[in-house]
Amino acid sequence: MLTSLLKNHHISRSNLAYRLNVTLQTIHNWCSGRVLIPNNKLGILCDLLEDLGVPRDELTGLALNNLASRGVHPARLERRVAQPTPTIMIMTWDLMNPGLFGSIVKLARTTLEGLGYRCMIFDCNGEHRIRRFYINEAIRSGVSGLLMCGVPGEVPDPDDDLLNSLSPAIAKDIACVLVKPWTGAINLPPGVASIGWDSIAAVQMALELLVNKGHTQIRALLSGTGAGFGGRYRGVDQAWKNLGLIFNDEESIIWAGQAGSSEEIKSMVRSSTGVFTPPSNLALLAQMCFENNFRWPRDISITSLGNRDFIPQLSRYPFTFVNLPVGRVSRGAAQLLADMIEGEQFQTGQEYVVYGSSTMVVENLDRGSVTEPRRRTASPYLS
Question: Which of 70, 187, 213, 370 has its CA 20 to 30 A from that of 312?
């Protein structure tokens, strides 16, 4: 092969011998094949021939031919182009106040990376305009999937708004999985799946703890900011009605984070015997109890929902809460998205994965924050 290269590109053997600092007979031996080109000369020879105008593909052929003569199979020398690692964008709503979704993001990311995916986490900082920008960025960067962890749509129709914002990604065949509490079926388009826990069942379990202890003066402390899921009440209204409790927006719920809410919460603590609140409001509720000289469960019973990584673990009278299946939801979301990226088709065209009450357990039921309502007497601290 060396002979043809020299002839086709008009390179003299004597000139080549001079440049390589070898004898002319050595070049004759290489050209005839009587002697193989030494490894320490092959690279130098190829560099020199390239300088003299020989194309790289012909030099590659020369090197492969020389190595094949030494018993190296050409297939082993073929360049294999590495396949790009598929990338998934994990979108969060507000990592400054992550709630349960902080743990879900960590577990889902670990699971996806274990499945061979590269993950990027983008936080919306609680702003819908940033959410829309990130969706467009996912399309531009060509991600394989979108995992929306606790990212809501904008009121008054958060579910519709969220799905509409995902339409451009769906049109580009980007698999999308929504991780959200379930408060009722929504019309999922093809290419979008939803996974989460039954929020109504979880709240109902927490309320039943109070009802079974004889409480009738029950209130809920909810976050007044953010869009939430499943409407304004996050399923609390339905759980209330399922237990035969009278639900009234003005009387049953106090909204934290709104103007004048501190005084309303203090008033709620004084007038209620039982309170349900998500874990994000437990610290605020505890502060209001302290300022009113109230102690749980002596003066007021408190229930919540979440998991042990997020609920404050107190040594004395810890909060009683419904432990949500955060681990199952996290790993299930990762596997569901991976299946969709691999092209798995769902028989119904839609995929809901909802973990119900059978996957939830009550923590700290004994010597926790729930007991029978206590008859209250006047106290100078409450005036």
Answer: 213
**Mean pLDDT over residues 58-67, rounded?**
79
> Can you read off the two tokens belonging to residue 343?
């092209």
Q: What are the structure tokens assigned to 80, written together?
A: 């294999």
The set of residues, in sequence order, having a beta carbon less than 8 Å from that of 213 and lying 6+ positions away, is 274, 301, 370, 371, 372, 373
In whole angstroms, what is the distance from residue 238 CA to residue 241 CA? 5
CA nearest neighbour of 62 among 52, 74, 51: 74
The CATH class, in words, for 87-197+326-358 is: alpha beta
Domain boundaries, the chain: 2-77, 87-197+326-358, 200-324+363-382
Residue type, 45: L
Mean pLDDT calculated for residue range 366-382: 68
Q: Is the peptide bond before 278 cis (omega within 30 degrees of 0)?
A: no
What are the C-alpha distances in Å from 318 to residues 31, 263, 312?
87, 25, 8
Give the single-character DSSP code of 198.
B
The answer to whether domain 200-324+363-382 has CATH 3.30.930.10 is no
Higher pLDDT, 382 or 323: 323
The 10s digit of each residue's pLDDT in 137-147 is: 999 999 999 99
Taking the C-alpha atoms of residue 103 and residue 360, their distance in angstroms, rounded to an integer, is 17
Q: Tens digit of pLDDT for each residue in 323-365? A: 999 999 999 999 999 999 988 765 445 578 899 999 999 999 8
CATH domain 2-77 topology = 434 Repressor (Amino-terminal Domain) (1.10.260)
Nearest to 178 by CA among 97, 90, 118: 90
* Token duo for residue 100: 């349960």
Q: pTM value? A: 0.71
- Is 87-197+326-358 in the same CATH topology as 2-77? no
Q: Find out whether 334 and 290 touch, Cβ atoms under 8 Å.
A: no
